[in-house]
Structure prediction request, 466 residues.
Amino acid sequence: MNKFMNESFLLDTDCAKKLFNDFAKDMPICDYHCHLSPEEIYENEQPTDISQLWLSGDHYKWRAMRSCGFEEKFCTGNATPKEKFLAFAKTLQFCIGNPLYHWAHIELQRYFGIDTPLNEKTAEDIFNRANAAIENGDFRPRTLIKNSNVKYVCTTDDPIDSLEYHKLLANEEKGFKVLPSFRPDKALNLHLEGFPEYIRALEKAADMKIKSVNNVIAALCKRADFFNSAGCRISDQAFDYVPFEPAEEEELDIIFNKALNAEALEQIEIDKYRYRVMLALGKKYSELGWAMEIHIGAMRNNNTAMFNSIGADTGFDSVGDCEIAEPLSRFLDALNTDGALPKTILFNLNDKDNTVLATMLGNFQSAEAESIIQFGPAWWFLDTMDGMTAQLKTLANLGVLGKFIGMETDSRSFTSYGRHEYFRRILCRLLGRWIEDGWYAYDEEIVKEIVQGICYNNAIKYFGFE
Prediction:
């Protein structure tokens, strides 16, 4: 029996150990997609305890705790920090096979120096030891980022954001950069409650009147220019499926006005509006030299009662099963035909779409950048040992794995950088097996370039950060 999560965790061949220890382990991190708060990074406050650091805003943990029968007060409610931590610890011991189990223990080991497995029996002792470490150490956001060897943090920001904290952070020497990413979902989701109010806010941010779809596009492009001036190089948008429904301008304005009046819309009307705006945004991203992230396949806010009670992003989303191939291809082709297809990263949430995305890449590659169309890393519900391995193997089978831009945290936690270590161990486990089995010729210089490229270098080159 192997020792629990020791230095060889997941590294089951001599080659895997060499790849990880010699090439991957000490590479910096480019966290090109996350949900960290730039305000919290700027304010740089010490957490009060491990519950605040770990359980505040983490819907992965909340979902598991609910599955173990804990009341909502232990997740998002008013239970004490200790009560919440003890509930999570009791939950964790049942999470065999869940990445939460590995993430939590990597974080305990790396940030707190605690090797003891966390469960109901050890919870109180670990709670006290972790809190003592916080009391006597520096667990402020900037310290955690810097000590995790992170060089770039790309947050997720609404077009109406003032980017106040990004500007303040840009003027300080931190050892890493915090850059905004452009997330126009609220401008695209004209069917959701609050859309008319959002358009009024966009008017104010862009300092212009918005009376038509072309005005929406102009306002978003104006804000994109502002984001670009603040160092933004990435956009991000989420869809059940990428829409492709061309329509005339007059029809689009009728749809837009219906939305402003909070009238019900048919799905085809929603798709027509989204397609027109996204087509324009894709061209703008290409003009600016940005990368366009597209996250496909989340079915959000399934639990109406809980949405009404505690809002979105609280752990009530799941995987959708829409057909995505044809509209995605037609959307990318429309941009490519106009010579305006930007660097694009395609993320899927349903693993049935792995082959769809991995083969879609090859349709639109060009000499403008190495693997200009990327198959994004395993995301959200696929961010597991099996999910990451499947994504890597599918890309290797059908594309060029050596040019992959690698992992991002997609997280709201300042200790979640252990996920990069988890990914790197899984990567080296897979490559090490292939090399040990004689499937790939071992040339140290080439293999080092591949591993370090996937860990960091490919992303830096792709986004133009250095």
Observations:
- The chain has 20 helices and nine strands.
- The CA atoms of residues 154 and 261 lie 35 Å apart.
